[in-house]
């Protein structure tokens, strides 16, 4: 191509202020996210639908809902997890309370992943440099990434509002609820845009953004659990709560996320203009010329790559376990007056004792969260391959199978650590509150660890996809989403048992309180080992890259 033909394209790019090609990139990235984005949106929509359905059909009278709401407001642990139930103690208000902060946080996670995926990750792999060599402006990739995240957040928020309307909830509160989610998505899309400029790797960019999200959730939780409620104004997750959907909507609060988004995007573009393509504002520190003895092996390398992520997950699990342990003794007061909700908890927990049923349900949720870590950990191997860092490792005296086994070993050890940490936290708090520390500590630890085989099945299936169809490895998130929906929504919707049995979590013993059967635990473990073996075989025989 001659310089004469390049000049009009260059002038066009300059004329558009560096935004040339934004529309094309947006179309391309929406196509790339045709699986990931709908999966997220589906899960968020199903979360709203199942929650509203449960509260509308689970309480027979306004008095029972009033009793439930007062029980929540009197329990600091529940307020820390979900916030206080505001003035409206109807099914609409309680539904908005139950999934308001949780859904806002999940929407924020979705937006962070999308923005980093299409900015820093593209630079890290070198694809953005190739795209930028064409008639694409310097600002276009970030603009398209933000547009992708905004589109996803807007779709999830709109569907959440529509679901509430279909259930007959008031229109104003339903719209405010959707906008509260959208606002949280906007803020953290902006946060991710900034961290993508600061960090030189997508892993660090995601880590920084999630650290901000965790801090925002923690600030809101501390404010709601204590008496200094004004502190929640410092948290974007607190802003979503302050919109007060179905509780006398405060529309002006929605200006805060819009303002924060504008400031963060401006900061991201300012930082982008001060760095080179592929580099970050935070320069990585050079390592030693020779690796330490502790790093001379694929297992040590896998641990080094994943230790930061595991530490963050461990802190979150400890906090969650402490909160669940604090709530367990008072769960009867929370659902007093609703036989239907009591029945639902017992169905999901599989026990007649309410505290045990609640804890069994909580352990199931912890297992699903642990599976999210397991999927992320397995996909780290795919990131090493697609980033071109695997081939130099395999060119030395490291075999494919040995490298993959090391990665899976760290995944397995991480799942044990996470469930062990949460089980210990629940056992310590619940045991101290029930004055039975010696009995509850091993009981809750065992209830957590018995979930491991089901988690390993999800990890093994993800590894199988990676081993056979590496380009589709992210479908592991779809496997987890299916298990989540079956486990949490299936019992409430009374799905056929044959459908429920698809999820490995259906077959784990319902502990604490239930009987322990070694057969399903052994069967799930055997399935996980067999699937992992096939995954290793497939990885050994396919081409790298």
TrEMBL record:
Going by the entry's taxonomy, the superkingdom of the source organism is recorded as Bacteria
Alphabetically list the UniProt keywords.
Answer: Membrane, Transmembrane, Transmembrane helix
- Positions of transmembrane segments: 35-55, 96-116, 142-169, 175-196, 208-231, 251-272, 310-328, 357-375, 403-428, 448-469, 476-493, 518-539
Task: Please identify the protein, giving its name as recorded.
Answer: ABC transporter permease
Query: What is the species listed in this Swiss-Prot or TrEMBL entry?
Result: Actinomadura montaniterrae
